[in-house]
Amino acid sequence: xxxxxxxxxxLSAAALxxxxxxxxxxxxxxxxxxxxxxVFLHVGDGTLNGGNGTINRVEVTVPANQLGNGVPxxxxxxxxxxxxxxxxxxxxxxxxxxxxxxxxxxRRNNNGAPATAILSVTAPAVLTNASGDTIPFSEISWTVSAxxxxxxxxxxASTFTTGTQTLATVPANxxxxxxxSFRYANSAIRAAGTYNGRVTYxxxxx
Length: 206
Prior knowledge:
The chain is mainly beta. The chain has one domain. It is 0% helix and 49% strand. It has strands at 3-15, 26-31, 38-43, 56-62, 73-74, 76-77, 100-107, 116-123, 126-128, 134-136, 140-145, 151-152, 158-159, 163-171, 174-184, 194-205. The strands form three sheets. Strands 2, 3, 5, 7, 11, 12, 13 and 15 form an eight-stranded antiparallel beta sheet that branches. A six-stranded mixed beta sheet has the order 6-4-1-16-8-14, with no helix packed on it. The chain has a two-stranded antiparallel sheet with strand order 9-10. The termini are close together. The model is unreliable at 15-26 (pLDDT under 50).
């Protein structure tokens, strides 16, 4: 029987923040005890008991004198999640106002279940404002980090594309976690307005 969990994240860009330093691409990958087959996913604010229904928002306002100048702008987050939901409550994302914590785990206790689960993100083609103007979702990218991690990146950094992208393969009895910092490419002058779009993260085990 397939298992899947989904969490959404809303991103917006107001055309009307200077870039932050990029941290090393690091992440946590931890072994966890085997158990009956299950998947766990959190994006931004969440809980261990199945989530709280929160859809976090990431946004940026482009100053008029910087419109379309090609200099990427850091996006801020309304997430407050800074500490890991797994293990010792570690401070993985020390700057949640500029980061979104993403964590995923897959457990199994027999060899008949699939060996891995897949973490992916699905994005529409464009962000849209109230007048119907659009910005390609490919204008938004992200870097990854995790404070204190000695391990290489396990949830990849990338740029949104239309449709579904695989972000990580989660081995059985493993928990992975890192922080995403989003950037708006600001590569063209856009009509005034607030452009909204929603992406959905999915952890699935066919």
